[in-house]
Amino acid sequence: MTVVRSQETRPVAAAPTAVEHGAGDQWWTNAVFYQIYPRSFSDASGDGVGDLDGVRERLGYLELLGVDALWLSPVMRSPMADHGYDVSDPRDIDPLFGSLETMDALVAEAHARRIKVTMDLVPNHTSDRHPWFVAALAAAPGSPERGRYIFRDGRGVNGDEPPNNWPSIFGGPAWTRVTEPDGSPGQWYLHIFAREQPDLNWDNPEVAEDLYATLRFWLDRGVDGFRIDVAHGMAKPEGLPDHDWDRNELMRNDDDDPRFNNPGVHEIHRGIRKVMNEYPGTMAVGEIWVRDNERFGEYIRPDELHLGFNFRLAQAEFGAEPVRAAIDNSLAAVAAVGGTPTWTLSNHDVEREVTRYGGGAVGWARARAMALVEFALPGAVFVYNGAELGLPNVDLPDEVLQDPAWERSGHTERGRDGCRVPIPWQGDAPPFGFTSAGTSWLPMPAEWAPLTVEAQLEDVGSMLSLYRAAIDLRTQRPEFSGTEIDWYGSPPGCLAFRRRGGLICALNAADTPVPLPPGQLLLVSAPLADGLLPANAAAWLV
């Protein structure tokens, strides 16, 4: 059996001058988004790295899976210091992935298949190769060019120490000193992430106007929305004060972290929303690492973002109590502002759920159960590419690691490469149809042969078959309606809730089989044992 690909090749679309998105269409409120990490999805060019033509070739598969929308991780022009999150031109496609014409063709064909297309936007920082930053380095302190970024004089003798004690998310200080045009040691610039990602100065109106131009550029080409990277960033506290970093960890932040979640960020999102309102039927979802529910809800007020990523479910341990707490918190975070909840179990920054839930057969069973819990909940669901195949994280050799956190941490933090290994499509040996090259940009383990799309399409008991069935039922059945849930009484180690439309979801996180709630069985993540729901399993009933 061959893996599903697009069955027709459409002509390359010309860049449109205007797009009708459909007034009043809030399609995102119950959509299933599919996150594509382009480097790892499908390689059409044969260089070992995934690209936009590879995505286009696999649209038939995504249509078969039943998703409503795609979220493309960064494909804009970039030197790839952080695999695209260091953008040097936000209004162009990097040649590694294709061209503007390739992107136009992908959007056109996805729309023909009734699939929306959203893409990553990175407003907190640029690449150090961006023309603005190149100009800033060539200009003098205090110049308009430097005013687009956050440059400061150093502290200590001769300004040899960073302006404050902030660390980078990737390790090391969040400041890098520049050499001035005359060759002397100069000012320092702020980079919350890698040194190749200088933070923009959002107090400068030029920065906002440039972002608005980028938004309109892509919306005019037919893009349906954006995922806002580091949506809780951008605004910085006045004076950039020092902070007590006793609890600082790489790749994490607390709610009192001065690098993030400053009040000024909300005016930035209001500006983004005003532009989005010019294009009815488009949306923006923010990456919001904020735990306090009230502060989280501020991001999705009616004049700010349409959706906000809530990561509580992705961070919850497998168990009835932590899962229920994550669900309750996520619903409470949006209730006060009338927002739509979002659900995800993994993404390009988060360890894959099969591994996170224990790995092996247990992790696989729990991941199947949690998929049913996730799809049963009201709101928008985000599926990371490969989750539908039950892919685990890969313990990669040190020599192939590419995440900047690996080098910046002095080889103590392995980074996120383990969840970014390419998708296995077909065959019995790496690279499993991902590329025609001999190897992929990150190596694929030989033991993934049973996990290929080809193998799972033929297996009714596969993870892929479960995802297809769940998405289809979620789309077609009237019981998946209502914005609220009611909790049932459950045996110890279990949980059950009912959608107002009539769907019942039961999770058995205990060690022994338990009776099902009353109702007609609709779907189950594992075969029943003498009529009982086995351990590490979930069921849908109506």
From TrEMBL:
Cite the CDD domains for this sequence. Answer: AmyAc_OligoGlu_TS
- Where the record annotates domain Glycosyl hydrolase family 13 catalytic, the positions are 35-420
Q: Does the keyword Hydrolase apply?
A: yes
Q: Which domain of life is it from?
A: Bacteria
Membership in a protein family: Belongs to the glycosyl hydrolase 13 family.
Can you say what this protein is called?
Alpha-amylase family glycosyl hydrolase
UniProt keyword annotations, A-Z: Hydrolase
One GO molecular function term of this record is:
hydrolase activity
